[in-house]
Design brief:
- There is one protein chain.
- The chain is an alpha/beta fold.
- The chain is built from ten helices and nine strands.
- Strand 3 and strand 4 form a beta hairpin.
- The longest helix has 20 residues.
- It is globular, with a radius of gyration of 19 Å.
Length: 320
């Protein structure tokens, strides 16, 4: 354990602790880290992560949907045309499914490629809210120019309300008063790395709240901010004549988030009605929330991924 802690500390003392690009970060321990620090989104997927000795993320920090290790290299093979972009958090990344071939974005791509090969990008990152997803979307979206963007993200916009320290009665729009930098939390909590969801939970600091009462901070301003971000995604896609399909995240009625997510999904639906390049695909009550389809009443099992991707396929196939 001492060696592990020493490696954590030494990482941030090196002159060039880069994870992306032409990095020489080949340490066997750090290649196992799921997430890594990011200059704009706080954290992102570690390009060096491996499962069964194979890279599980692209060098740009996206979860793979093919054997290629770079979405830029693969984009060139498709004449710089991206068919589908999947925007979301851990439910899009598909936490709990170790092989990318088990995820719903991969399975959706396989279905769409039956007649003609399609290029699909999985942009989901665990713990990300729509703030971080939009940062990625306005940067990478303008390069990929996806015909269709699946917007499957809502729960993580409520997580800061639940996790943010209790003393903060009002949470700032960019979470400045409840969230630390990812690399700082890693450095200060090396023993709790895996315990704290691979470091993500640690960004809320030692006074992390984790209480349903935190959802009382879901005020009108917070809802309006979510609506604005949904509208921004639609407006961005409009620039390259893309379409947005808003899909409510599926979650068990037993979850403390359930009622608040209903409010958020209503906002999402209202935005889809007002934006001409958007639609609302409601799959709630279409898939039973049980241990067959879900690992933890939120994240899909492989069978759940198959069912979800099949339903998405029926809708998307009408557009492509």
């Amino acid at each position: 354990m001492r060696d592990v802690i020493k490696k954590f500390i030494n990482l941030f003392k090196k002159e060039e602790p880069f994870f992306y690009g032409n990095s020489n970060l080949k340490d066997s321990f750090f290649s196992k880290l799921f997430y890594c620090p990011h200059p704009f989104t706080n954290w992102s997927l570690n390009p060096h992560s491996r499962y069964d000795k194979n890279l599980i993320h692209t060098k740009e920090g996206f979860r793979k949907t093919s054997e290629y290790d770079s979405i830029i290299d693969e984009l060139e093979l498709f004449n710089n045309k991206c068919d589908v972009y999947c925007l979301g958090g851990s439910t899009t990344y598909c936490d709990g499914l170790k092989n990318y071939t088990q995820t719903w974005p991969y399975k959706l791509r396989s279905l769409l490629s039956k007649k003609k090969k399609r290029f699909l990008v999985n942009a989901g990152v665990g713990g990300w809210s729509t703030i971080q997803s939009l940062i990625r979307f306005f940067s990478w979206g303008s390069i990929l120019k996806p015909k269709i963007t699946i917007f499957y993200q809502s729960k993580n916009d409520l997580t800061p309300l639940v996790n943010g320290r209790e003393i903060e009665k009002k949470i700032f729009p960019l979470l400045e008063n409840i969230m630390l930098q990812y690399d700082t939390s890693l450095n200060s909590n090396p023993k709790k790395y895996k315990e704290n969801n691979y470091g993500i939970a640690s960004v809320y600091g030692k006074d992390m709240y984790v209480d349903k009462k935190g959802l009382s901070r879901l005020n009108l301003e917070w809802k309006e901010l979510y609506a604005v971000r949904c509208k921004m995604a639609a407006e961005l896609a409009k620039i390259w004549d893309g379409r947005i399909i808003f899909v409510p995240e599926l979650i068990s009625k037993k979850s403390i988030y359930f009622e608040s997510m209903r409010e958020i999904h209503e906002i999402m639906e209202n935005v889809s009605i007002k934006c001409e390049n958007s639609s609302f695909l409601d799959l709630r009550n279409k898939i039973e929330i049980d241990e067959t389809n879900f690992i933890d009443n939120l994240h899909f099992t492989e069978l759940g991924s198959e069912k979800f991707s099949s339903m998405l396929y029926k809708e998307i196939n009408k557009i492509l």
